[in-house]
Amino acid sequence: MNEIKAILEQVQEGSLSVNDALLALKKKPYEDIGFAKVDIHRKLRQGMAEVIYGASKTPEQIIKIIHTMQKNNQKTILITRLSLEAAMIIQKTCPMDYHADAKVGIVGSRPVADGLGKIVVATGGTSDIPVAEEAALSAEIMGNEVLRLYDVGVSGLHRLLSHLDELMNASVIIAIAGMEGALASVIGGLVDCPVIAVPTSVGYGASFGGVAALLSMLNSCASGVSVVNIDNGFGAGVLASRINHMEVKK
């Protein structure tokens, strides 16, 4: 949206003709590179650039997508679900900050945080950290300040309660838990901000790969809790960022 607004402001100031502005806006919204159609206008439409889903793509395909994005002035590129093996190949061609726990790669500089407040990412246990890091890194790349509160699950409730100030001052909270998924309900009952619940596939046999936590979170008795899919840290990070950047539309 910033690019479109800048073009319109130039027309208003008289520094850009209507025809030149029309030409700028008519540029094709994607670039076809054969195996992929890279969405160049996504940031204009949605406020965030396209993100590369790394799973099932070859390193060579990812490198070509990165180069296409960079050619179109995308300064920061997020790659999710990226294996260590693929990351090592990509790093030979494209300098990249790789986070093995979250399977996230970051190409380019991180933006300055410009959200309305702070996003808190809380986990029930240490085993939930890979999903939490995917959420936290995604939110940071989208221009948010993130506070991590890890291993604060309900099996030791005092750990969570010792962070009440941070929780109550948050703009958005992402609550990530496996097992029975109770963390989201507990946090939802303590705060006045939106809570995004992320069930994880962590747990013993009856957790059914995260389905038990998913159903618990969907049935939360606390108001203001929404739920994303099992292990979907990226989806939670995007939603939290959008909430944290909401402004009144005039």
From TrEMBL:
Which interval of the chain is the signal sequence?
none
Domain (PurE): give its ranges: 117-249
| GO MF entries | hydrolase activity
Which InterPro entries does this chain map to? Answer: P2CMN_synthase_LarB, PurE_dom
Transmembrane spans: none
Which is a GO BP term held by this UniProt record?
'de novo' IMP biosynthetic process
- Quote the NCBIfam families the UniProt record gives: LarB
Q: What is this protein called?
A: Nickel pincer cofactor biosynthesis protein LarB
**What gene, per UniProt, encodes this protein?**
larB
